[in-house]
Structures are given as C-alpha cells and as structure tokens.
C-alpha cells in the first residue's frame, strides 16, 4: 500500500511538470547594435505557455537601474502568449553594454527565464579620460592639474557656459579646439594649492544648447587631500560597570611615517567622566590614547546612546571615535 502511494505521488508530480511549460517565442537575446545613448531602446520578448495549466510570473528581476521592464499581466493561461517589454533608458549607460533580466515563475518545468539585451550606446559627447575621476591622495600646498578632452559624436552639438561646485578652490578653463573634421573641446581643471586637509569633491556641469532637451554633461572629480588621522579601534564598545572602564586606542596617520607630538592632539567635545592619557609608543612612534570612562559618562551613554569625539592634529584631517553602549545596565544602576 505504501509503495502504491509513492508511485501515485511520482506519477502526479510528473503529470504536473508535463502540464506546464513556458517558452520564449523567437529569441531571448536582442542586440540593439550601435545607437545614440540619448535615445531609449526597447524590445518585446514573447513568452508562451505551451502547457495545460496556468503559470504565474512571481517577479521580474532587473540588475541595473539603466533597465526598465513592463509586463501587462502576471498570469499566463494555457496556450496564451504575453509580451515582456525591456527598455534601455536614455542616458543611463555608455559604451558597450550587456544587461540581463531574470523572470521568476511558478512553472515547475523551469522556474526561471533569462532575457538579455546588449548594444553600444554612443554618448552625444565623449569625455576623455573619463567623466568621473578619483585623483587619489593629493599633498597639501601643491597645485594639481587635470585635462579633459570632449569630442562630439555629431556636427550639431553646441555647449553652454560651465557651472562648477567644489569645496576647495579650483580654476577651470574651457575652450573649443580648432579641429576641422570634428567638434572638440578642452577642459582644464586646476586645484589651487590646498591649505587644509580633507575630502575634495568637484562637480562640473556643461549645459547642452543643441540638440534641445539633452541633459547637461557632468564631470566629477574626488580626492583625499593631505594626511588623515584614524584610530584603532574606531568604535569603542562600553559595558556598564560600577568600576572605571579603561580602553587603549591607537592613533595612526594615513602616511604611516608622520610623527605626532602628544601635546598637539586635541579631543572635542569634552565630556564629564571621559578622560584621555596620550603617550607615544617608543616601539613604533604611534600614539596610544588611554580612555578612562567613569560612572558619569557611562550614565550618559546608556541614557542618550552612542557619543562621538573628534581627534584633531594641525595639518591632518580629523578622526572620529564612537563610544557605543552595549546591552543595558542593571536597574539599580539606572
């Protein structure tokens, strides 16, 4: 009897599998070829239910924000065909691309269907070496220069006056190059000698006058300026205790070779119940900051939550230490 039930279950499962099967009519991969990046490209993939039972589409997964999908219904009856539209959005991808879409279904014969679109999106203006640059770590008090070349993909392009946002002083020169067979421009960004450390962020917008309706060109530059401080650990976990809590924190620099005088270290803000004893480790020259936490600061942590202090040294980007309470104190200590 038990064997008969097993055989019956096996037969029913096989019948269920045989009764549902989704297929892609035609191709599941479309190549749009070479096209303007400013123009959307879309295609319809036809999905057919060749089985005898209804199949549901659970979800359609796209793995890039440059892709949009549309499906008119999420249930496919036996013998029915539906279309899934896949669109490459305008100005969302440049150069060669290949993007996949994964369709999850209830079809026991094949739970997933893979769709793919590819092509080469040609930007209105090609920006070299790149529209986004990370300049790395730049020294203090030294000028930095980066040149960009812009080349239009057609003859009707007109660019407007540039706009720039930068948290460090910069100078920007933008000129049209005298090239007879193409439209080309040169943009030169000069970072004036920075007087303070920090993170540099520069955003340059170039309006497109023609063709009308085209979004502005955007060039971005980021960099680290000067040396930075960092602590090990950056987060200090504090357990509630009736005794003072002691924790050693090492202060390092990004250069690895800078020697810091303990007297130059400034820690803000000042909290009651939190003190630091700063000494140099004779073995490697790094600074060891011994944090001592008593009941007053512990009470603040467990009542108000985590607290930050800033470690500053002249000529360095500051570091942050976070004191994080762990657990909850016994009720008699609250």
Characterization of the model:
The chain has two helices and 28 strands. The strands form seven sheets. It has a five-stranded mixed sheet, with no helix packed on it. It has a five-stranded mixed sheet with strand order 24-25-22-20-27. The protein has a four-stranded antiparallel sheet with strand order 1-3-7-5, with no helix packed on it. The radius of gyration is 31 Å and the shape is flat. The N terminus is likely disordered.
Strands in their spatial order, largest beta sheet: 2-9-8-4-6
What is the CATH-assigned architecture of the largest domain?
Sandwich
Number of separate strands: 28
Number of domains: 3
Element string (H = helix, E = strand): HEEEEEEEEEEEEEEEEEEEEEEEEEHEEE
- DSSP strand (E) fraction? over 45%
Helical content band: under 10%
Average pLDDT, rounded to a whole number, is 89
| Uncertain ranges | 2-17
Spatial separation of the terminal alpha carbons: 68 Å
| Quaternary organisation of the protein chains | single chain
Radius of gyration: 31 Å
The CATH class label of the largest domain is: Mainly Beta
Question: Any idea what the shape is?
Answer: flat
Strand and helix layout:
Blueprint (H helix, E strand, L loop, with lengths): L1 H17 L3 E4 L3 E8 L4 E9 L5 E8 L4 E4 L4 E2 L4 E8 L6 E11 L6 E11 L2 E4 L3 E7 L5 E9 L5 E2 L3 E4 L3 E7 L7 E8 L6 E9 L1 E3 L6 E9 L1 E6 L2 E5 L5 E9 L12 E3 L5 E7 L6 E7 L1 H10 L2 E6 L3 E2 L1 E8 L8
Parallel strand pairs: 2-9, 11-19, 20-27, 21-28
Antiparallel strand pairs: 1-3, 3-7, 4-6, 4-8, 5-7, 8-9, 10-12, 12-16, 13-18, 14-17, 15-16, 17-19, 20-22, 22-25, 23-26, 24-25, 26-28
């Amino acid at each position: 009897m038990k064997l008969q039930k097993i055989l019956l279950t096996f037969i029913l499962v096989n019948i269920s599998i045989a009764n549902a099967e989704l297929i892609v009519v035609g191709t599941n991969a479309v190549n749009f070829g070479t096209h303007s990046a400013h123009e959307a490209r879309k295609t319809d993939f036809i999905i057919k239910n060749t089985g005898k039972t209804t199949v549901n589409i659970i979800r359609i997964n796209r793995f890039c924000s440059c892709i949009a999908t549309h499906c008119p219904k999420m249930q496919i009856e036996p013998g029915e065909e539906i279309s899934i539209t896949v669109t490459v959005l305008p100005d969302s991808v440049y150069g060669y691309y290949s993007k996949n879409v994964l369709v999850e279904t209830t079809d026991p014969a094949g739970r997933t269907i893979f769709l793919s679109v590819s092509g080469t999106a040609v930007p209105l203006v090609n920006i070299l070496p790149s529209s986004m640059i990370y300049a790395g770590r730049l020294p203090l008090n030294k000028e930095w220069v980066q040149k960009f070349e812009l080349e239009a993909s057609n003859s009707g392009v007109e660019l407007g006056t540039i706009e720039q946002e930068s948290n460090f002083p910069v100078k920007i020169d933008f000129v049209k190059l005298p090239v007879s067979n193409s439209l080309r421009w040169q943009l030169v960004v000069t970072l004036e000698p920075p007087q303070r450390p920090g993170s540099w962020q520069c955003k340059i917008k170039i309006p497109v006058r023609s063709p009308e309706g085209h979004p502005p060109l955007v060039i971005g530059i980021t960099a680290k300026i000067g040396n930075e401080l960092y602590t090990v650990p950056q987060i200090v976990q504090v357990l509630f205790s009736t005794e003072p809590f002691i924790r050693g924190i090492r202060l390092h620099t990004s250069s690895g070779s800078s020697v810091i005088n303990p007297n130059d270290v400034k820690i803000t803000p000042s909290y009651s119940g939190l003190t630091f004893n700063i000494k140099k480790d004779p073995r490697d020259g790094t600074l060891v900051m011994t944090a001592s936490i008593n009941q007053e600061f512990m009470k603040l942590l467990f009542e108000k939550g985590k607290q930050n202090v800033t470690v500053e040294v002249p000529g360095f980007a500051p570091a942050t230490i976070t004191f994080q309470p762990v657990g909850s104190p016994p009720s008699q200590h609250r």
